[in-house]
Amino acid sequence: MKKLTFVTPLVLSLIFLSGCDEKYSREWFIKHHDEMIAKYTECLLDGTWDIKECQNARDAMKHEQDKPDVIEGKKQAIEKLKDKISLQPVPDLNNVR
Asked: Of 9, 55, 72, 89, which shows the fewest CB atoms inside 10 Å?
């Protein structure tokens, strides 16, 4: 009986978690441009390309790169990245010993 109370939640958790991965597949992002651009921008700013969702968003962006909304979304994402980089302090290398 103890095994059953342990195994049942484990199996249900695995089923639930495996369903989440499919929601944000490459194909899903291709069909949902606004979410694709938002995730791409988030991953670009955070540098989290090792996450599967980010990889799917990036692959979908490449697939849809000729679409006008995707072109504009990528431009805005790059501008946000430039703004983030410009706000980072520049180290003073003259005082390094």
From this structure: 89
Give Cβ neighbours of residue 29 (< 8 Å, ≥ 6 apart). 35, 36, 39, 56, 57, 59, 60, 61
Residue 61: is it exposed, middle or buried by C-beta count within 10 angstroms (0-12/13-18/19+)? Answer: buried
For 74, other C-beta atoms within 10 Å of its C-beta total 17
Give φ, ψ of 15 to 5 degrees: -65, -45
Could you report the per-residue pLDDT of 41-80, keeping only the tens digit for each? 999 999 999 999 999 999 999 999 999 999 999 999 999 9
Q: What CA–CA distance (Å, rounded) separates 25 from 12?
A: 21
